[in-house]
Design a protein that fits this description.
The protein is globular and about 35 Å long. It has a single domain, classed as Alpha-Beta Plaits (2-Layer Sandwich). The relative contact order is 0.28. Strands 2-3-1-4 form a four-stranded antiparallel beta sheet. The longest helix has 15 residues. The chain is α+β, with helices and mostly antiparallel strands. Strand 2 and strand 3 form a beta hairpin. The protein is built from three helices and four strands; from the N terminus they run E-H-E-E-H-E-H.
């Protein structure tokens, strides 16, 4: 199996219906929501490419921006996070 890397998926999409379908696709790939439009999880290269194809089809011709960003473990561990509930 190809190496899984920590992956961030971020998007900015105006249409509520499409934005919901994008978030459902991220959940289908086992990603965890960390912000309204940001997900994270481990995906290998094939899964990242599959997800991008699915998200591209879901977005269609509507305006929007999607970023799928893999990161190495060292970068992931060096992230800073503030969480107040």
């Amino acid at each position: 199996m190809k190496q899984e890397l920590r992956t961030l998926v971020m998007y900015d999409i105006e249409d509520d219906r499409i934005r919901h379908r994008i978030s459902e696709a991220c959940l289908d790939y086992g990603l965890e929501r960390i912000q309204f439009s940001v997900f994270r999880g481990k995906l290998n290269r094939n899964k990242r490419e599959e997800l991008l194809m699915r998200l591209t089809q879901t977005l269609g011709e509507d305006p929007g921006k999607i970023l799928i960003q893999p990161m190495c473990e060292e970068d992931f561990r060096s992230a800073l996070e503030l969480l107040r509930i």
